Amino acid sequence: xxxxxxxxxIFAIILILVIAGSIKRRFHPAKFALSIIALFFIPGLILAxxxxxxxxxxxxxxxxxxxxxxxxGVILYHLVLKRLxxxxxxxxxxxxxxxxxxxxxxxxxxxxTRNNGGYVEHSHGFGGxxxxxxxxxxxxxxxxxxxISVLLRPFLPVExxxxxxxxxxxxxxxxxxxxxxxxxxxxxxKGFRLAGSGDYTKTDIGRExxxxxxxxxxxxxxxxxxxxxxxxxxxxxxxxxxxxxIWSESLDFFRPVFTEMxxxxxxx
Length: 268
Fold this sequence. Notes:
By secondary structure, the chain is mostly helical. It has one domain (44-254). It is 72% helix and 8% strand. The chain is built from ten helices and six strands; from the N terminus they run H-E-E-H-H-H-E-E-H-H-H-E-E-H-H-H. The chain has helices at residues 2-21, 29-58, 60-79, 87-102, 128-141, 144-152, 163-186, 204-208, 210-234, 238-267, and strands at residues 23-24, 26-27, 107-112, 118-122, 191-193, 200-202. Strands 1-2 form a two-stranded antiparallel ribbon. It has a two-stranded antiparallel ribbon with strand order 3-4. A two-stranded antiparallel ribbon has the order 5-6. A hairpin with a 5-residue loop joins strand 3 (107-112) and strand 4. Helix 1 (2-21) packs across helix 10 (238-267), helix 4 (87-102) packs antiparallel against helix 5 (128-141) and helix 6 packs antiparallel against helix 7 (163-186). The longest helix is centred in the N-terminal third of the chain and has 30 residues, at 29-58. It is globular, with a radius of gyration of 21 Å.
């Protein structure tokens, strides 16, 4: 009985947080639904990430060049890429654009400046409000260069290795360092002047809200990084194994929670 009450309290707290993250002047059903789905799959995504990490470290011919690339990437980021005006902005806006294209949006404008940021203007279309949320948060969960590199890897000749894996490590290191800097700069409700037009606007996270952004960024980061690790080691056939882990582990995690909750509610 006490265990059931504990589960009920935990579920109620999570539900309150999700509802709070879905309200900004009005209730946003899309934010609520996305948050619930993300929270359900996070346990499975954590375990998929862990399994992917174990896969990578099992193969020295993969983790060693990756590790070398990660170290080189940190050095390159701080000495070169961070100081290269406009590069981080280009990658940020490219992520917005790629997610927009994924939702079949047409890119109308792609603006990048050296010192004043940038922006992407796209058409409305497939995905509606759900698509808008993904496009807005794209730069914070999408490891653009790493994703492209890993997806191309299974098609490359063996002569490209291990150097290509060093490159993957460099891209991942850059994406991680840049992500941390972007989150630090954009985790605010303060506004800024939009490049080109000078219009006053909020950051992506300021518009989406802290709670919703946190849930979605964590879930989508785990999803993409775990998938890339599976593909890196086993290629595209590993996609099915990855999906099964996420679904089964999430279901196993929540099954006793809901069982206890329903038992408690039935007997109160």
